[in-house]
Amino acid sequence: MRRGNRAPRGQDRPRRPRKEGGAHGSVPAALIARARLPQPTTTRLVQLVVVAAAGAAFASWWWLVKERDHWPGAQLGCLPEPVAAPAVPGPDPMATVTGFTRCVDGVRLDQALVVLCGPLALLPLALLVRAAARSRALSPRRTRPAGPEMAARLAAVVPPGTARPPVLLIRRGRGLGLGARAEGTARRPRVIAGAGAHLQSEADIGALLRHEVAHIAARDVGRVRLAIAAWWILCAGVTVPLAAELALDPGSIGGAVALRLAAVLAVSGLALCGVLRIREHDADVRASADPRDAGALASYVSRDRPPTARRRIPRLLGLATHPTREDRLAVLARPGRLWGLSVPESLATGIAAGLVFTDAALLITALTPDSIATGYRITGALTGWAVAGVVTVALWRAVAVRHPDAYGLRPARRGAALGTGLLAGSQLSARASGDWTDAFGTADGLAADFSLLNAAPGRAAALAAALVVGGALFATWAAALARAARASATGPRSGPACAAAVALSGAVLAVPLGTWFLFAALAAVEADSVPYWGAVDSTAWVVGATLTLLGALTPFALTALRRRAPRPRLVPALATALFVLPAAAVWIPLANADDPSPRRVLLPGTMPAPPGSTGVLRAPVEPVRDDRPVDIDDLPVLPPPDEEGHQEEVRDPFKACLALNVGKSALWAGPEGRKETAELLDAVDDTVLRAVSAALKDARGAPVHSDVQQAAILRCDLLRRYGR
Length: 724
What we know:
- The protein is an all-alpha fold.
- Helix content is 61%, strand content 2%.
- It has helices at residues 29-33, 40-66, 72-76, 93-137, 148-157, 202-218, 221-248, 254-288, 296-302, 309-316, 325-333, 343-365, 372-388, 391-400, 410-428, 436-439, 457-484, 494-524, 529-536, 539-552, 554-564, 570-592, 598-602, 653-663, 666-669, 671-681, 687-699, 706-722, and strands at residues 143-145, 167-171, 180-184, 189-193.
- A four-stranded mixed sheet has the order 1-2-4-3, with helices on one face.
């Protein structure tokens, strides 16, 4: 059948560029200059913010919590009044248990707020340093007002309608030579030109000043100066003092901590250098978009001197703060290449997110003491939004200009680099440097060794592979979302659509990221299988996983809606139905059930029958005549029964805590385990542990409140650290 003049199927669709310099090479600079999407300088600054927050939070924990002996008075003050055994402490043992756990949780919440003061204090300190540097740069001793001729040249390159045109100053001495630099604030912008800038041609002076005015129009002067000040504060106020303290008293993990602090400083330094380079490209593109430029900026850049051998070394190491002449000319020739997503950028984003996650999770779990998994999911959402602020926005920009980085297998490769960076950042974190509880007596049980080197090789390999594959899937999904939503650089809805994509990306990443880092922490401390299942056996996790799955289907839903071309008013209703109704269908039966465990409500046929007996707590009494060493996990938790068949009483709380540590989660998982735990703690010479025993006995095999197990853990932690 002949089609006549009908266009072939798919002819109206945008073609995928096959190589670098394809469709994005024809994107004009004016389109990028007037785009309503965040510029690369803005997204690169997100990496610096994340790394700086991680460094400041760890420093404040070190000096304000760990160095102050973890506030022993506040925590030991939570202990109830001693009651002689075997009396039950109080009429209600749960009141004792709950009061103790809530008191200790309140102390940890206060510590979390103190730790949070580190990142919050970094901002005003950076503002003060930036203000001091600006005052020094603009002081009359260093600058003087420009003459009327040079002032007129600056006014000639300022875009029409500028509310606050910049004022030109001349640098005294030879500081800038023939160059110039943007300074000042948004309300009082300034351009400082070198003493010899007027010796250049009219076209070169115009190109030079137009470039600096572009910095002011992009409002990147203050933000970049703030980032530089924050980096120097981290270097001089955090890394150097901590390194000096660790050099005097390294302990067992001091060397590993010092190396990780140096790695954090190096990562933040590389990110800062990347920001300084990319802002020059952004200013070049914005300046060349001015119709009055007419290629003057490209001509001016082409006459720049090539880098010397001394400057090539920092460039090879990624420490160059200014792009080379060849790089600037390449961007001016094809401005669209600036809107891609490179593998190093994805890797750096992952490292920054991995560095901050564990410290942020420890802070947020102080707000959710009843559910550590909930704290990890909240941290996953916050970290996911930070990752989306770089990766999702970059892929959105790439689709808007049809950059090759958003098509084919390139998003998957960028995503794999993102996952690799997350893995590297999690292991570069100071929390993964060693066993804090052994190295420093003031470190509580939450500051454990989170290194995957402690995990079984199979679990570590599976977690690493899952993170890399998950990163590849996320980047592929983000690129598909941008293509399905028809991302554009301009238009009244371009900015809000990109912001909605970032919000959705953070929601999609919340549960996977939080679950992965929680599983990694469990694997690092060699936890048994019970906590793994407990992390996902909850209503919140099932609902969150359902939303993640539905969010992953968003590109397909948008494509289907676009093909059928529904009314614009129906799109929000359909989107609400897509997300809310299925999630409600999962949540309602779980919320109305007596036992909200998803295993029991959704999959009742898979529940095993309750065992009649268990051999977890008692071991055979046969004597072992063997001189070979025995692993501590193979030892019996309770002492063997005597000749009369009765269990020997354990009165020493230290021995009881050792038995709880060896038994791990099996002591709390089933009715038999909880029964024997109650027998173990019944005669212990400690009020809190006896209250835990009484609460377990009152439960009579039914599930008990999470405060019961938490009280035993917290009490044993205080005994380990303070001996009382």
